[in-house]
Amino acid sequence: MSYAKMLDVPFAYSSNGDAFYEHDFLTGMERQIALDEFPSYDKLVQRFKEESNGGQGISDEEMAIMTDVDDFDFICHVAYGKKPLTRRERAESVKKQDFFSRYSGAAKEVLEVLLDKYMNLGIYALIMTACRNNNVIFER
Hints:
The protein is mostly helical. It has seven helices and three strands. Helix 6 packs across helix 7. The chain starts with a helix and ends in an 8-residue tail after the last helix. 2% of the residues are buried.
């Protein structure tokens, strides 16, 4: 569990070969669970929202702010009080730094399409689109 604590994750799971254990670092609770009791991603997100901020949860105002940010910004905001950047703000920052000037032709075009899709859809939607479409994500 020391590695999970170093990573500062809210939940961790372990096994001693006979049983599975859930470690909830937000509440400090540990419990034995059956294989079919592993929570879904949605359930873990819901628990994170409810148990964060010392059990006070995440407010509706915080949730409204977070609709256009990725998980990284969301977690940094909740855990460290960092101002979250929206995907649009992150994408515009990349454009302002003239990052794409290093590339030309097809490479530059692919990067521009990926950045645009990231800004509008988010990284998970981009990945899921690639998976569903057999990695065809570069159509405009």
